Amino acid sequence: MKKVLVIGGAGYIGGITTDKLLDNGYDVTVFDNLIYESRFLKSCNFIFGDIRDTDSLIKIAKKFDEIVWLAAIVGDGACSQSPELTIEINFNAIKQFMINSKRRIIYTSTCSVYGAQKGLLNEESAVNPLSLYASTKLQAEEYVLANNGIVFRLGTLYGLGDKFSRTRLDLVVNVLTLKAVTQNRLTIYGGEQWRPLLSVSDVASYIVEAVSNNLAGIYVLKYKNLTVHSIASRIKRIFPKVKIDKTELPFEDLRNYKVDTTKAEKEFQYRPSSTIKKEVLKMKKLFLERRLKNTNDDIYYNTKHIENIINGVDF
Predict the structure, then answer these.
(1) How far is CA 64 from the centre of its chain?
(2) What is the structure's pLDDT at 274?
(3) What single-letter DSSP state applies at residue 8?
(4) Which of 1, 147, 242, 272 has the least CB density, counted as fewest CB within 10 Å?
(5) 315 within a domain of the structure (yes/no)
(6) What's phi and psi for 119, nearest 5 deg?
(7) Has residue 102 been placed in a domain?
(8) Is the pLDDT of residue 174 over 50?
(9) 106-120, pLDDT tens digit by residue?
């Protein structure tokens, strides 16, 4: 039985990844500082810690066969709240760990490294990061790859994760679903921007397979390439009475790209299976039943939560 350390295992991706690893018989330990949580009640081993404490993390990691690194400040807005902190967490911490440990890790990066480009992009395509988030992820990739690790460049995530960790309401499919339920109206900016979409559940399944194989290198992951307008149209099919308002006002998110996942399809057995419709219906039920008491709570929004932490708001 392989012993797996999931760094950032209490997060949006980490929660469901931990569950799927446990379901597949792995001995899992979560390492996390609970930045979005006030407790960790899941029935698996847990270590409270900070990835910036390199010496302690290296000592802990020696006890494990595989390491999954998910810890990061995620998203352009969240990273912009404190560039210094973002660089510490998203780049310096992993750089120091990789240099001093020489360990193979499974690392989640982002398709945001491509910025805004035309055509189908793959692992060999030029990169053009437009934000600190994308650039720190890209810099970290170099150190992961130098130690025979796997880098997953993830598309825009959507859907629900596990039953313990917080969900995210700042992702395009998730927030549009919330607005469809609560406002009966969807407002989109431009709408012709392309996004490679991927469910958080599918990310976890790819990670589980990576734990069991010896693959290395970069792998682009997605379920479908869709424009923001086509995403809204798919959601409207589930909520026929919803109105779509399209505005030509510029939006601060300039990313626009489509990706090709041929490499992952050749080298991984897993195929994305959690459709947008499936996840939207799950979220619809969640919202209609008021299972999230306050959908405006900052824990569901990376930028708002990190901003409050930086400003010293007492949680």
Answers:
(1) 23
(2) 94
(3) T
(4) 1
(5) no
(6) 85, 175
(7) yes
(8) yes
(9) 999 999 999 989 899
Kindly write down the DSSP assignment for every residue of 178-233, as one continuous string.
HHHHHTSEEEEES---EEEEEEHHHHHHHHHHHHHS---EEEEE-SEEEEHHHHHH
Residue 258: CB partners within 8 Å, gap ≥ 6? 119, 120, 121, 194, 196, 225
Q: What are phi and psi of 264, to 5 degrees?
A: -65, -35
Q: Is 164 helix (H, G, I), strand (E, B) or coil?
A: coil
Domain interval for residue 62: 3-310
pLDDT, averaged across the chain: 94
In sequence order, which ranges of 62-186 are alpha helices (DSSP H)?
A: 76-80, 83-87, 93-101, 132-146, 172-182
Rg (CA), the chain: 19
The C-alpha atoms of residue 252 and residue 189 are separated, in whole angstroms, by 10
Three-state DSSP class for residue 138 = helix
* Cα 287 to Cα 160, 168, 175, 282, distances in angstroms: 12, 13, 11, 9
The secondary structure of 252-272 as a DSSP string is: S---EEEE--HHHHHH-S---
Contact 33, 18 (CB under 8 A): no
Helix, strand, coil % over all residues of the chain, rounded to 5: 40, 20, 40
Cα(89)–Cα(1) distance, integer angstroms: 31
Length reported for the chain = 315
The domain that holds 104 is classified in CATH as 3.40.50.720
User: Do 3 and 27 form a contact (C-beta atoms < 8 A)?
Assistant: yes
Residue 124 CB neighbours (<10 A) = 8
Tokens read off for 63: 């006890």
User: Is the pTM value of this prediction over 0.85?
Assistant: yes
pLDDT in tens, 71-81: 999 999 999 99
Tell me, yes or no, whether 35 lies in a domain: yes
